[in-house]
Amino acid sequence: MSHKQARFPQPVASEHIPLKARAVSFSWDDTPLHWLPGDPFTTHTINVLHLLLPAGERWFVHVYKQALPLVRDERLRADVIGFIGQEAMHSQAHDAVLPHLREQGLDPAPYTAQVDWLFERLLGDRTLPPGRARRWWLLERVALIAAIEHCTAFLGDWVLNAEELDRRGADPTMLDLLRWHGAEEVEHRSVAFDLFLHLDGGYPRRVRTWATAFTALVFLWQRGTRFFLEHDPTLTGAAARKATFGDFRRSGRAGTLPTTGAMLRSIPRYLSRSYHPSREGSTAQAVAYLASSPAATAAEARANGAA
């Protein structure tokens, strides 16, 4: 075992599988605006994914294409390539929901313009001289992605087990989108962290970028939920009030959103020096869902037919 391997946390080998992108597609013709019946708050809290992920995951792909030439391990290189393919597909799938929202009278453009600015300008490429400064900025963004991927893997694991959404009659197409995406987040949950360890792995950078990512996600999510509730054409009066953390906690206790306690407990796990994402969630559960997902199985059939 090398000195670097001994210094860094080791993955659970059985949780690793080769990654592949699945060219899924969804029809939103029969999906109502409030796809969780009678619950616009939960609907719109989860709908924020459609606002954040297209730009965010395009940014992931852009950064990882810059990092790929620095990867010296062949298995990790294959993982990163698989990750890039899956994230590109996630971006496209969520982007395709936005025209459906516009048709329902909810135009997300004012919010998505701000998200685009964040990823393309604030976190985009900078005019830096070759060498230490340019590498520093790349490593900062690689570490930010690792922190964000901890959050998305947590959410992926949650939605795979969120039986209350089924009990309350969630729209099956939206639920399949969320669970297909969640399953792939669990499936590739170790890639971003492994790339961070491979290129840097510094603990101060891990803590600093986690704090940045978590603060930004909480701010953007709350802002996005409020945007949806305030602009939902079907809501008036008290129903269109601003979203609060109390609403989130109540939905967590009801099982339609993650609980506040579970989210808070995930933080020290990521910040532990012994943390590795392979100990979070279950690859077997993710793969089992992908084997039954209507969108994923249809994509597999199309791919086999084309072959």
Backbone structural class: mainly alpha
Taking the alpha carbons of the first and last residues, their distance comes to: 42 Å
Q: Percent of residues in helical segments?
A: 55-70%
Number of helical regions: 14
Count of extended strands? 0
Unreliably modeled segments: 1-6
H-E string: HHHHHHHHHHHHHH
Portion of residues in beta strands equals under 5%
Radius of gyration, whole Å? 19 Å
Major beta-sheet overview: none
In round numbers, the mean pLDDT is: 93
Anisotropy-based shape: globular
How would you portray this structure in words?
- There is one protein chain.
- This protein starts with a helix and ends with a helix.
- With 307 residues, it is mostly helical.
- The chain has helices at 3-7, 40-67, 74-95, 98-103, 109-122, 132-160, 163-167, 172-187, 191-199, 203-231, 245-254, 260-271, 283-292, 294-306.
- The protein is built from 14 helices and no strands.
Please summarize what this structure is.
By secondary structure, the protein is mainly alpha-helical. The chain has helices at residues 3-7, 40-67, 74-95, 98-103, 109-122, 132-160, 163-167, 172-187, 191-199, 203-231, 245-254, 260-271, 283-292, 294-306. Helix content is 68%, strand content 0%.
